[in-house]
Amino acid sequence: MKSKFGVSRFVALLFLMLSTGAGHTASDSKLMLNDTIALEHLEIIRPLRGAPNAQAYFTIWNGTERGIYLAKITNQSGLIFTLQKSIELDGNLQWQNVSMPKVIPPKSEFTAKADSFRLIVDAAVLNNANADKLRMLFKFVDGQPVEASASVLPFGTPPTDHHHGLLDGK
Questions:
Q1: Which residues, listed in sequence order, are joined to residue 68 by a DSSP beta bridge?
Q2: Residue 51 DSSP class
Q3: At residue 170, does pLDDT exceed 90?
């Protein structure tokens, strides 16, 4: 059951912020969606030459009192990127696709980071992107798409490892 001022109010505020140019620029590592929801450290690690896919990592912080639902992640032309999670089978790390929408519980973060979750990005879209940025759309259930700029990093660069908690702000 949704409250009268739930996700729809969040989406309206977000749309207003993005359409008026308020908030952070495309080069910032943190995009505040509102006072309590943030998309941080959106990074794509370039693959080895000739590999079909790159891997992307990010953090979504949900500081609200309700769950939020990530429906899909695309590029500007609509190509859907696949979210995967790691599982261990017979001592080997395997990857499986995550069913969407992905819930991000209240007062928690979802982090796509090496060895837990990753976003599979078609390497061909990196050939058409600026050398160091790729525009992506994060689509939430009952909401407008949120546009964010991913930093495209060289192969072998470790993604940012950041967590919300007691040490934030210090």
A1: 104
A2: -
A3: no
C-alpha distance from residue 132 to each of 32, 54, 65 (Å): 21, 14, 36
Alpha helices in 20-170 (DSSP H): 124-127
Q: Which residue reads 């999670």 in tokens?
A: 85
The distance of Cα 150 from the centroid of its chain, to the nearest Å, equals 9
Token pair recorded at residue 10: 């969040």
What does the H/E/C string look like for 66-95? CCEEEEEEEECCCCEEEEEEEEEECCEEEE
In sequence order, what are the beta bridge partners of 38?
A: 32, 61
Chain segment 124-168, per-residue pLDDT in tens = 888 765 568 899 999 989 777 888 999 999 999 888 876 554 444
The residue written with tokens 């739930």 in the block is 6
Looking at residue 33, its amino acid is L
Instruction: Evaluate whether 83 touches 102 at the Cβ level (below 8 Å).
Output: yes
d(C-alpha 53, C-alpha 149), whole Å: 18
Q: Which residues pair with 119 in a beta bridge?
A: 56, 83
Average pLDDT over residues 26-30: 50
**What six digits make up the tokens of 94?**
């395997």
